């Protein structure tokens, strides 16, 4: 899209929480970047439904706040927009373990005619002031590299991922193993609760090195269910098909995986794998591959595979002849984290997986 630049300075704008009309307008504007494969109207409708979800309306975590920056005197001349969502998080430092709030920042956007004049930067600084008042840290997932956000204190964190490809996989047919069953959205709550308890226990056992802080987002049902709802709306709008499987678990319920169907990027995106053995991961990944095949998707992707997840993926490659690729994600959704107040620090982001994505 070509657009004529409209000169503007920070004196010309107001940063504020969006009214419903401003919110809708900003979705219509940012749909140019994020609606596809949905139409703008379907994108707006999806965002409207998500804005009413338990995650977005939570009084406990603060819910999702939609911000806009508009020209003074014209509330509907949207210059930039962004949203921030409060989430339950864990922090472990020299003082031990504490729970607190952290923010996910999403949909950073400047209308094309106002770009390259410092508007997004100014808006992000105002947003930081608002978030710093009641949180431990904030994260965002950059599609524009790490330099711009780094300049505002959001430091890049690892973006390794593993892709399991359906094609060229040594002829192995994508079938769900018998010892694994698919999970529906309605079944997820108990797994999320178990997961929160286990992660809290694991974080509580950490003994950080001097000066180091470990942080994690809690994989709460509220957070995950927002992802499942988003998936449900997405596949219904694009494929006219109802969502059935949001994940899979081993028969004994001791290991599980959550995912969503990214029809735009042609992949089944894993939110989180909880397992104690590479063999369990191997079974869960086979279930994911079977689900990807049922939707005609090209691959299954999981972020920051480590420990048993890495070993399980390697089993798939070595024992089952599946094409598996480990790579750094350079161009999209690079996780970036900033401690409150922009404090310097050696931060380890535990369980930096897709479940925490905005
Ligand atoms: C990214 C965006 C919000 C920047 O808005 P802006 O008001 O022009 O930003 P500022 O004027 O404060 O800063 C401009 C800087 O942003 C960075 N930037 C913008 N687009 C970029 C891109 N595609 N890749 C890398 N850096 C980019 C650059 O550092 C740029 O500085 P430069 O012009 O000297 O290179 C705007 O271009 C936009 O809305 N893009 C489409 C949506 C999008 O990609 N949002 C970000 C999602 S993570």
UniProtKB/TrEMBL annotation:
| Superkingdom in the source lineage | Eukaryota
The segment(s) forming the LYC1 C-terminal domain are: 174-358
Supply the SUPFAM superfamilies for this chain.
Answer: Acyl-CoA N-acyltransferases (Nat) (SSF55729)
The regions listed as transmembrane in this protein's record are none
Q: Which PANTHER family match?
A: LYSINE ACETYLTRANSFERASE (PTHR34815), N-ACETYLTRANSFERASE DOMAIN-CONTAINING PROTEIN (PTHR34815:SF4)
Name of the featured protein: LYC1 C-terminal domain-containing protein
């Amino acid at each position: 899209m070509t657009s004529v630049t409209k000169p503007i300075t920070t004196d010309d704008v107001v940063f504020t929480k969006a009214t419903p009309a401003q919110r809708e307008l900003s979705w219509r504007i940012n749909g140019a970047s994020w609606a596809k494969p949905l139409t703008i109207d379907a994108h707006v409708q999806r965002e409207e439904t998500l804005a009413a979800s338990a995650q977005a309306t939570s009084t406990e975590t603060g819910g999702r706040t939609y911000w806009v920056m508009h020209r003074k005197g014209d509330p509907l001349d949207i210059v930039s927009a962004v949203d921030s969502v409060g989430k339950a998080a864990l922090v472990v430092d020299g003082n031990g373990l504490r729970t607190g709030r952290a923010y996910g920042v999403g949909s950073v956007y400047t209308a094309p005619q106002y770009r390259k004049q410092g508007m997004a930067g100014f808006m992000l600084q105002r947003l930081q002031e608002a978030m710093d008042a009641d949180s431990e840290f904030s994260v965002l997932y950059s599609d524009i590299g790490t330099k711009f956000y780094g300049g505002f204190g959001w430091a890049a964190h690892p973006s390794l991922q593993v892709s399991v490809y359906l094609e060229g996989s040594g002829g192995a047919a994508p079938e769900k193993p018998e010892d694994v069953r698919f999970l529906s959205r309605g079944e997820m709550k108990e797994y999320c609760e178990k997961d929160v308890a286990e992660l809290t226990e694991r974080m509580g056992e950490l003994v950080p090195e001097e000066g180091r802080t470990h942080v994690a987002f809690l994989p709460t049902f509220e957070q995950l269910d927002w992802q499942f709802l988003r998936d449900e709306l997405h596949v219904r709008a694009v494929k006219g098909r109802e969502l059935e499987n949001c994940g899979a678990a081993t028969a004994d319920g001791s290991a599980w995986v959550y995912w969503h169907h990214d029809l735009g990027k042609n992949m089944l995106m894993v939110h989180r794998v909880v397992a104690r053995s590479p063999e369990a991961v191997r079974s869960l990944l086979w279930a994911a591959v079977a689900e990807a095949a049922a939707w005609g998707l090209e691959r299954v992707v999981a972020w920051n595979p480590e420990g048993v997840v890495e070993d399980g993926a390697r089993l798939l490659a070595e024992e089952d002849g599946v094409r598996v690729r480990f790579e750094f994600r350079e161009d999209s959704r690079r996780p970036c984290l900033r401690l409150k107040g922009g404090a310097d620090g050696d931060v380890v982001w535990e369980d930096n997986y897709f479940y925490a994505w905005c």
